Amino acid sequence: MGGESGRKHAVVIGASIAGLCAARVLSDFYDGVTVYERDELPSTPDNRPAVPQGRHVHLLMARGAMEFDGLFPGLLDDMVAAGVPILENRPDCIYFGAAGHVLGTGHTLRDEFTAYVPSRPQLEWQIRQRVLQIANVEIQHRSVAQPRFDADAQRVTGVYLDSDGSEPDFVAADVVVDAAGRGTRLPVWLEQWGYQRPPEKIVDVGIGYASHQLRLPEGALRERVIVAGASRQHPLGLGLLGYEDRTWTLTTFGVGKVEPPHTFPEMLALAEELLPERISTALRRAEPVGEPAFHRYPTSRWRRYHKLERFPAGILPLGDAVASFDPTYGQGMTMTSLQAGHLRRALAGGADDLAHDVNRATAKTTFPVWMMTAIGDFAFHHAAGQAPRWYRPVGSLFDQFLGAAETDPVLAEWFLRRFSLLDSLYMVPSTGLVGRTVRHNMRLWLAGRRAARAERSGALAAS
Ligand SMILES: Cc1cc2nc3c(=O)[nH]c(=O)nc-3n(C[C@H](O)[C@H](O)[C@H](O)COP(=O)(O)OP(=O)(O)OC[C@H]3O[C@@H](n4cnc5c(N)ncnc54)[C@H](O)[C@@H]3O)c2cc1C
C-alpha cells in the first residue's frame, strides 16, 4: 500500500454525517478542505432528497452524542437550546422493547445516562452549521463523477466533477474521503484501477419502513422515546420519537420482507398491539401531518476494505460507504462518529498509509457491533441467508438474558448501556452476569410454580 503525500488539499465526497465529520477532522491537518455534495443543501433543518432516511426515526445513541460533541464542542448545548429533548435514561422518559422484552420499566437504573433526541435533519443541520464556520472548509454543491487515479504512482490524485460542459472539471487533492454513503462506487473504481473489490459481509434483512409525522397534544405522553423492536413472534416493530419542533415521528417497520402498515389507521392498530394501552390511547389523539414516507432497506452491508492486500493511496472510505448497519438498531451515525475518531488518530500519528490505518481501526470497531446485530437479525428478525451455526443458540441465550432483564435492573442497565455503545462495543456478558441471569430466571420459574400450586389448592378448597 502506498504512502501519503502532502497535506495541502483534502476533498470529501458527500456532505452528510460522515462527510461533515471527515471535513471537521481533515480541517485540522490540511490547508484546505472541499466537500462536494450533489444535493442542494437546505438553509434550515429540513429533509433532502439524497438522505431519504431522514424522514424516519433516527435514534442518536448516547455514545454518538458524546463523540459528536467531542468533534463539535458545544453541539449538544446548541441542540438543547434549539428545543432538542434531553432525557435521562429513566422509565418515565423512555419505553424500550427489544426482541419482545420490555426493559427499564418498573425500576430505576443505578447508573442513568443522558440521551438526546434530535431529528435527523436537525442533527445534520447543526453539524453543517459548525462545519461551515471552519475557515479552511468549503462545501460546494457539485457532484463528483469519479476520483482520478494515477496508475504510475498507484494513487488517487483528485476528483473529476460533473459539469455542464463536455469535459468534467478536475480538482487536485492529496486525499479524497469517500463519504458517499452505501451507494458508493468505490468498489467499482477499485476494480477499474486494477485492484480487488472488497470482500463483503451481507445480511439479507429485508426491512421496510413506513413513517408518519404527527402532532400530539402537549403532555399526552410522558416519554419522548418509545421503541418496540421486532421479535421472533412478531416481525413488525415501531419507534415513536418526540423531536425539537414538538412534532413526533411514528415509524413502523417490518423485518424479513414483511410489509409494515401503510396507512395511519393501520399504524395505530399496530401500536395498539405492541404498546401498553396508556401509550396507544394517547396516540389515538395524534393528528397526522403530511403524507407517510416509505423506505426499503434490503441488506446490511459491510465492505471489508481492511482485508484487501493492495489499496491505492490517496483515498479512503468512511461511514455507510464502509458499513451500513440494520437501521432498526439505530447505530449508523454513532459508528460513523467512531470512524471520524480513527481518522483523527491516524492523521495525528502521521500515518504513512492513512487508508490502511483507518480501514483497520474501522474493522475493529465494526466487528463487534456487526456481529451482534447479525445475531439479532438471524435470531429475532427473520433474516434470510447463511449464518454461522452458533448464531441461533447465542440468540436464544440472549433471549433468556433479555427475559431476566425485564425484572432485574442490573441486567437491564448492562444491556441498555451496551446497546447505547457506551461501556464497550462488545455485547458479551461476564460469567457473573450469565449466572445472575440463570438464577433470576430460576427464581421466576419457581415463583411461577408456587403460584400455580397455590391457585390449584385454592380452587380445590373452594370446590
Ligand atoms: C431507514 C434508515 C433509518 C436509520 N436510522 C438510524 C438511526 O436511528 N440511528 C442511526 O444512528 N443511524 C440510522 N441510520 C443510518 C444513518 O442514516 C447513516 O449511518 C448516516 O446517515 C451516515 O451516513 P453517511 O454520511 O455515510 O451517508 P449518507 O447519509 O447516505 O450520505 C451520503 C451523502 O453523499 C452524497 N453523495 C453521494 N454520491 C455523491 C457524489 N458522487 N457527489 C457528491 N455527493 C454525493 C449524498 O448526496 C449524501 O448527501 C438509518 C438509515 C436508514 C436507511
From TrEMBL:
InterPro entries the UniProt entry points to: FAD/NAD-bd_sf
Name recorded for this polypeptide: Oxidoreductase
Natural source organism: Mycobacterium cookii
